[in-house]
Amino acid sequence: MEFEDVFKRERVTRKFTNRKVNEKLIADIIKKAQQSPSLLNSQPWRAYVSVGESLEKLKKASKANIDAGVKPHEDFASMLSLNWDTFPSQNMATMGASQTYFFRNKLDLFTKSNDAMFNAQSVVFLTIPRESPAWSVFDLGIFAQSIMLIAIDNGLSIMPAHSMVSYPDLVRKYVHIPDNQLVGMAIALGYKDKSSEVNDPKYFPERVPFEKIFKLTK
Ligand SMILES: Cc1cc2nc3c(=O)[nH]c(=O)nc-3n(C[C@H](O)[C@H](O)[C@H](O)COP(=O)(O)O)c2cc1C
């Protein structure tokens, strides 16, 4: 696929079909993503892939937690604090919340898809060591983006979601991740359910005007 097309297709998918993704393809994607740059080539990332029984057990246990009202406690929780600067806060309010289904009586659609882990048939959990500088979070983001673009180039759809790492204790248990790793993010890879309303392109959020984020100084 042309790079521009890959990049244009990078929109999230909130409901996948039941079709499984070839496990070798997933491994190949992650192997290619290892080419990503990182601070001093530190490559702090690890990728733990969950499919089949492991993923079904995790989904079930996570849903039980949600139903029981267990508060999410992401490993990156301290960074997910509400102390956002006004610029991203405003973007979330105007580009995210008010524009799409969040505010058209469709919050339920969004919540349900998250709670069901998007019916994903394969999820890549991305970790960095517990003892990590902020640079490693940055590196993990680059690695994640590589995985997503390579996956799209291979005909897959993607869903990066912190909601899938809301309960890192469960992720560690069912995906066999050691305690010394922070469960940073999760990316579901699969085939888009085109008939699902939650995937309707009319809900694609827009981006802030370019002039707001770009400044050239000579
Ligand atoms: C770090 C990160 C965490 C995200 N977490 C969630 C999530 O928990 N649930 C969800 O539905 N979408 C999540 N998303 C998807 C974003 O909401 C989405 O990328 C954004 O609204 C822009 O939409 P688009 O990618 O389709 O253009 C996440 C994206 C990123 C990069």
From TrEMBL:
<dbReference type="Pfam" id="PF00881">
    <property type="entry name" value="Nitroreductase"/>
</dbReference>
<feature type="domain" description="Nitroreductase">
    <location>
        <begin position="11"/>
        <end position="191"/>
    </location>
</feature>
<dbReference type="InterPro" id="IPR029479">
    <property type="entry name" value="Nitroreductase"/>
</dbReference>
<comment type="similarity">
    <text>Belongs to the nitroreductase family.</text>
</comment>
<dbReference type="InterPro" id="IPR000415">
    <property type="entry name" value="Nitroreductase-like"/>
</dbReference>
<protein>
    <submittedName>
        <fullName>Nitroreductase</fullName>
    </submittedName>
</protein>
<dbReference type="GO" id="GO:0016491">
    <property type="term" value="F:oxidoreductase activity"/>
</dbReference>
<keyword id="KW-0560">Oxidoreductase</keyword>
